[in-house]
Amino acid sequence: MEKFEGYIFTALCSTNFLISCLLFSRVTREQREPYMDEIFHVPQAQKYCHGKFNEWDPMITTLPGLYLVSVGVIKPVVWLADLTGAVVCSTAMLRFINLLFNCGNLYLLYLLICKLHLREKTRTTSRRVLSALSLSTFPVLYFFNFLYYTDAGSTFFILFTYLMTLYGCHKASAFLGVCSVLFRQTNIIWVAFCAGTLVAAKMDEAWRVEHTKKRDEKSPPTQVPLSFSGVKKVALFTLEFLTSPSYVKAVLLVAWPYAVVGVGFLVFVVLNEGIVVGDRTSHEACLNFPQLFYFFSFALFFSLPVSLCYHRVLRFLQALKKQPLFFLFVTGVSLLLVWKFTFVHKYLLADNRHFPFYVWKRIIQRHELVRFLLVPAYVFAGWNFLDSFKSRSLFWSLAFLACLLAATVPQKLLEFRYFIVPYLMYRLHMPLPSLPRLIVEFLLYTAVNAATLYIFISKTFHWPDSTATQRFMW
Question: Which are the contacts of 105, defined by CB distance < 8 A and separation ≥ 6?
């Protein structure tokens, strides 16, 4: 069975790569010159190709991981093929690097699914393979395989980092985490998540031990009531765990490679006087709490075929009936956060080439009350998100939520690319969906990809003050 699965997956990888190459060829023919952020990334990579490592474009805000990998791949190929002239480190050649990352992402997603859903291994061959394929074509990620952006490589190294954590190779995981940070500084959050899973495992163990000592407890040791008393109980236990020398020592013995990466990153932040390199004026952190609500809505839409069903809606209505005060409190807090902490980045309103511009303009900005009227939908989307983690342990879920908050809330700009890694992590840890649901999910992703690529290629337009061709994109 494993050999047969290997043949299927290999054929799938080859087919995926072939189709992606055909799409890549079409996109590159239509848009030969660097577009959008490529106008910064491509010239910088070309400088590195020519050995000019001391030259840096101050408009670039990420570290040079993408350019270093590009040079590391392209230079040996150029030497072996004896290539010369304009083709070397051309825009098309640099973009092709992301197609290679796309293949790597498909393989890593497959390995992660196999590892995370090990108990179901005997009867889920087609579900594992199709799930990996579907996630590798996740629309926001898949679109940027055809442009020279950091997303494909950034996602590759984060997935690789997490895979090594699951296999217990923590030194390798920490090294790969450093590579991911070189692509995007905020990836340090997901390196911290990898360490957090180790801490969560220790906390779950200590929680079970403490729970078994209290014979009068009625609920299972892995469950905590969704109430104020439950929150208080978890908070007190967490404080006790983190202030216990023996527990801290046990964690550090396992997680010290991640601690080294964390300390190194703090040194970088101090020396750099911030996380962002280059232009900082457009990347200022703030407490944009509604970003979490936007992510919940985003996750609900893209996971709709695999996460939502009649029984889950029924459970939500039952939860509303059982704990009306709790949901009323959550709704009130959400309204307050939308009212006081909604920030709108100048780029969101100024650039009509991005899809978020139209989401904001035609939905949220349609009327001043719309953002408040959407709160009940946010509450449901958040509940649906959390309900998908019922099979995960309490402290693992808390570690993931903490990292999700850190990855979304400080971002002032509504940018769907920032949701790629948190969404993939969410989707990977959901129970493996049934085959019909996976087929519907794959068809949804395929339809969205077809629509976005068609719009990018065919629906061009021009600004009144520019002759350059403009295109719509994520």
Answer: 136, 141, 152, 155, 156, 159
The string of DSSP codes covering 124-166 is -HHHHHHHHHHHHT-HHHHHTTTTT-SHHHHHHHHHHHHHHHH
Q: Residue 215 pLDDT > 80, yes or no? A: no
State which H helix or E strand residue 414 sits in.
none
Burial class from Cβ neighbours inside 10 Å (0-12, 13-18, 19+) for residue 71 reads: buried
Residue 16 neighbours by CB distance under 10 Å: 17
pTM of the model: 0.92
Any idea what DSSP says for residue 360?
Answer: I
* Rounded CA separation 109/115 (Å): 10
Q: What is the pLDDT of residue 426?
A: 95
Q: What residues does 80 pair with on adjacent strands?
A: none
Q: What is the largest CA-CA distance in the chain?
A: 77
CB 393 within 8 A of CB 120: no
For residue range 405-420, what is the model confidence (pLDDT) as tens digits? 999 999 998 999 999 9
Q: Looking up tokens 């270093």, which residue turns up? A: 68
Give 431's DSSP letter. Answer: P
Residue 470 phi/psi, 5-degree rounding, is -105, 150
CA Rg value for the chain: 23
Q: Are 449 and 139 in contact (CB under 8 A)?
A: yes
Burial group, residue 419, by CB count within 10 angstroms (0-12, 13-18, 19+) = buried
**253-259 contact pairs (CB < 8 A, 24+):** 254/170, 254/198, 254/202, 255/170, 255/195, 255/198, 255/199, 257/170, 257/171, 257/173, 257/174, 258/170, 258/173, 258/174, 258/177, 258/191, 258/192, 258/194, 258/195, 258/198, 259/195
Residue showing tokens 């009144």: 464
Pair 63, 44: CB distance under 8 Å:
no
pLDDT tens-digit profile of 40-52? 999 999 999 988 8
Residue 469, H or E segment:
strand 469-470
Burial of 326 (0-12, 13-18, 19+ CB in 10 A): middle
Under the banding of pLDDT at 50, 70 and 90, the label for residue 216 is very low
Tell me: the pLDDT tens digits for 328-337? 999 999 999 9
Summarize pLDDT for 348-407 with one digit per residue, the tens. 888 889 999 999 999 998 888 999 999 999 999 999 999 888 888 888 998 999 999 999
Q: What is the mean pLDDT of the chain?
A: 89
DSSP string over 14-60: HHHHHHHHHHHHHHHHH--S--TTHHHHHHHHHHHHTT-TT---TT-
Three-state secondary-structure class, residue 473: strand
What share of the chain in percent tops pLDDT 70? 94
